[in-house]
From TrEMBL:
<dbReference type="InterPro" id="IPR015424">
    <property type="entry name" value="PyrdxlP-dep_Trfase"/>
</dbReference>
<dbReference type="InterPro" id="IPR004839">
    <property type="entry name" value="Aminotransferase_I/II_large"/>
</dbReference>
<keyword id="KW-0808">Transferase</keyword>
<keyword id="KW-0368">Histidine biosynthesis</keyword>
<dbReference type="InterPro" id="IPR005861">
    <property type="entry name" value="HisP_aminotrans"/>
</dbReference>
<keyword id="KW-0032">Aminotransferase</keyword>
<dbReference type="GO" id="GO:0000105">
    <property type="term" value="P:L-histidine biosynthetic process"/>
</dbReference>
<comment type="pathway">
    <text>Amino-acid biosynthesis; L-histidine biosynthesis; L-histidine from 5-phospho-alpha-D-ribose 1-diphosphate: step 7/9.</text>
</comment>
<dbReference type="GO" id="GO:0030170">
    <property type="term" value="F:pyridoxal phosphate binding"/>
</dbReference>
<comment type="subunit">
    <text>Homodimer.</text>
</comment>
<dbReference type="Pfam" id="PF00155">
    <property type="entry name" value="Aminotran_1_2"/>
</dbReference>
<protein>
    <recommendedName>
        <fullName>Histidinol-phosphate aminotransferase</fullName>
        <ecNumber>2.6.1.9</ecNumber>
    </recommendedName>
</protein>
<feature type="domain" description="Aminotransferase class I/classII large">
    <location>
        <begin position="34"/>
        <end position="341"/>
    </location>
</feature>
<feature type="modified residue" description="N6-(pyridoxal phosphate)lysine">
    <location>
        <position position="209"/>
    </location>
</feature>
<dbReference type="GO" id="GO:0004400">
    <property type="term" value="F:histidinol-phosphate transaminase activity"/>
</dbReference>
<dbReference type="InterPro" id="IPR001917">
    <property type="entry name" value="Aminotrans_II_pyridoxalP_BS"/>
</dbReference>
<dbReference type="InterPro" id="IPR015421">
    <property type="entry name" value="PyrdxlP-dep_Trfase_major"/>
</dbReference>
Length: 346
């Protein structure tokens, strides 16, 4: 049966999510999840009926939160589906390409490869910023340019002036897709205000991180009404289950937003604590981080990662040499990480 699959699928290596990698332990800091387990009362009636494709109340609530118009908002099964929708809607297999800048999130490449779309890469600079000159040289046949900010796994912000230069460079040629999965931890760095000026901008958002709803699978694409209407042509008929819309609406209520803001502030404080404590250990480089995680460069990253894994502390190894990405947990979890690493280097 495998031989009946499309050639691209036969050769595809699936994205190794945190859950696929597995592990066992009592400190889980490998998936950039929130440590807060908030309670909700989900809708349990009317499940004999299909959900709306784009629930009006949910679209209006998130548009209000993001500061855009409802017609500029599309909800999907996580931001991952948003990536897939953009590739499916805008890229002709065998003709068009996407471009992305590693080290960065792996699903841009996986989604393109799944649909037989060419993948072009321009590595980030030594400072993990965009190499605009090299990007411009590779734009032939590129329909989508993916930029993650804060970038996963490095944690840094991409310079706003470079994002604007990229939008100017790609006018009438390609869509710049800003992945803002972690922007709720630094909302001042969002590019959402640029939607008014650039119709070739699309922004990916999620409720998995700051809203502590990774298991809900609820994401959003913010873009011009024209782009949203194109995506509506290829999205599944019923992408948002009734309980998902109900819980997401609760999270976007006045009370829910206040709770999310409080929890974000706590996680940002914990990130500061973890970064300062690890930076005090000789030989470690703690990279500046703006999301709910930190990338730490160790003298022997693979060895540290395995030792932590064996002890029941599940972190995430990184494509950056000797880099280990550590999600920000509660204060107790952060203290356990610091204690383990200090003892490891004694």
């Amino acid at each position: 049966m495998e031989k009946l699959a499309r050639k691209q699928v036969q050769q595809l290596t699936p994205y190794l999510s945190a859950r696929r990698i597995g592990g066992s332990g009592d400190v889980w800091l490998n998936a950039n999840e929130s440590p807060f387990d908030n309670s909700y009362q989900g809708a349990v009636s009317s499940l004999n009926r299909y959900s709306e494709c784009q629930p009006k109340a949910l679209i209006e609530a998130y548009a209000s939160y993001a500061g855009v118009k409802p017609e500029q908002t599309l909800t999907s099964r996580g931001a991952d589906e948003g990536i897939e929708l953009l590739v499916r809607a805008y890229c002709e297999p065998g003709d068009d390409a996407i471009l992305y800048c590693p080290p960065t999130y792996g699903m841009y490449a996986i989604s393109a490869e799944t649909f037989g779309v060419e993948r072009k890469t321009v590595p980030l600079t030594a400072e993990w910023q965009l190499d605009l000159t090299s990007i411009e040289a590779k734009l032939d046949n590129v329909k989508l340019v993916f930029v993650c900010s804060p970038n996963n796994p490095t944690g840094n912000l991409i310079r706003r002036e470079d994002i604007i230069a990229l939008l100017e460079m790609t006018k009438d040629r390609a869509i710049v897709v800003m992945d803002e999965a972690y922007i709720d931890f630094c909302p001042e760095a969002s590019t959402v205000d640029l939607l008014e000026q650039y119709d070739n901008l699309a922004i990916l958002r999620t409720m998995s991180k700051a809203f502590a709803l990774a298991g809900l699978r609820c994401g959003y694409t913010l873009a011009s009404a024209e782009i949203i209407n194109v995506l509506l042509k290829v999205i599944a008929p019923y992408p948002v289950p009734i309980p998902v819309a109900d819980i997401a609406l609760q999270a976007l209520s006045e009370q829910g937003l206040a709770r999310a803001a409080e929890q974000v502030a706590t996680l940002n404080q914990n990130r500061t604590y973890l970064g300062e404590a690890l930076a005090a250990i000789d030989g470690l480089r703690v990279c500046e981080g703006w999301g709910n995680y930190l990338l730490v460069i160790f003298p022997n990253g693979d060895e540290l990662f395995k030792a932590a894994w064996d002890s029941g502390m599940i972190l995430r190894n990184s494509p950056v040499e000797n880099g280990v990405r550590i999600s920000i947990g509660d204060r107790t979890e952060c203290e356990k990480v610091v204690d383990f690493i200090e003892k490891f280097y004694l």
